[in-house]
Amino acid sequence: MTTGNGAGTESGAAVAPTGIERALAAAVAGGSAEAVVEVLARTRLYVLVARLHADIPGWTAPLPTIRDEATRRTCVPVLTPGVLPPWHPEWVFRAVSLGELARTWPFDVRRLAVNHGTPFAVTVDARPKHLKAWLKADEHSGGPEHGVLLTDDGGPLHGPLAHGLALGAHLAVTNGLIWNRLGAVYEDYATDRARLRSPWGVPHRAEYRDRLASLMKNQLVGRAQEAVLRTRHTLAARLGRTPTREEWSEAVARAVAARDAGDRALAERSLYHVARYEDRLRADGALAPDGRVDTLAAFDLGRAVNVVRLALGARYGDPHEAEQDVLRLGELAQGAYSSWADFSLGYLMARIVHRAEDDGPEAAESTYRQSLAEHRTLLQDPTSPYRNIAWS
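Given the sequence above, the corresponding C-alpha cells read:
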C-alpha cells in the first residue's frame, strides 16, 4: 500500500473534501491495509467511462487501466465521491463496489489506484488473495452507507446556491449522497438516467423540463392534501388561532360538499393522516404543541432539487442551467416557508401521508421513523446546512 501527495498525513496541506476521504486518509495514516479496504468497501467507487460507451445498450465497458509512472505498474484507477472532476458532457462515471471490482478484475493487473493524481491517493494490492479479501469486506460492509449526511467542503456551503441545494438534503441523506454538489454525477450515469425513467417517467430532456415545471408549481405533491391544509390555514387566519379538529373537519366537509364521493373520502383520509402524524410529531418533540404544517410544498421542491441533479448526471442539462433552476427553487421555498424546521416538517409530513395513503398506516410506520431521524439529523447535526445556512 502506497500513498501520494501527503494523503493521510497530518502535515499534508490538502483538506479532505468529504468524510469519505477523511476516513480513507485516517486508515492510510494508521498503516493498515485492511482498514483501507474496509473504508473502500463502505463507499461508492467511480470509474471513468466515455458517454459513447455508456450509452451502448446491454454493454458494460471493461475496467480502465493506467500506468503509474512512480511505480511503473499498471493499475485500475477509481475515484471516491469527494474527488470526482467537474461535469463534462461526453465523459461520465460508473459507480462500482469493491466486490464488483474483485469479480471483474483484469487477470494481469495487480494494483488498484484510488484517487490517482490527487492528494488523497492510495495504491492497493490487487493480487488474487487480496481480491478474495475485497469480496469478504464487501459482503460484511453492507455496501455504501445510507442515512448519513455527506458534505463536500469544496462545494457551496453558504449563499443562495447552497440554500437551494439544501432543499434536497432529505433525499441526499436517505441515499447517502453528497447534498451540496452540482457535478459529474448524482449517483452514477446509468442510475441517474434509470431514476429519471422510473419513477419520474422522464426519458429525455423535453420531458424533464415539463416535469420540473410541474414540481416548481407544486402540482405533484397531492392536491387533496394541499386543499385540506389550505382550508385549515384559511380558517386559522379568520379565527386568529389554530382551529380545533372538529372545526377543521367541518370546514373541509363544506369545502368538498359538491365533490363526488371519492374526493370527499380522500379529503377525510388526508385530514385524518395529517392530524394523526402531527400528534405523533408533537409527542416526539419535533412539532411545537401549538405548531402545525400548513403546506406540503416542501416535498415537491425538495424532490425537484434532486431531479435537477439527476438530470445533470444524465446529461439532460448543463451546470449553468442546473444552477439557475436550483436558485429558483430556493426562492420558491422561501416564499412558502419561514424556516428550515418548517420546510423539513412539510417534507416529512408529505412523505409519511403519501405512504399512509398508498400502503396503509402500518407500512407508513417505518417511513415515519426514518423521516423523523433524517429531520433530526438535519436540524441537530452541527455540520448540517440547516444549522449553517440562514433561511432568508
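Residues 131 and 282 are 51 Å apart (CA to CA). Try to locate this feature in the C-alpha cell string yourself.
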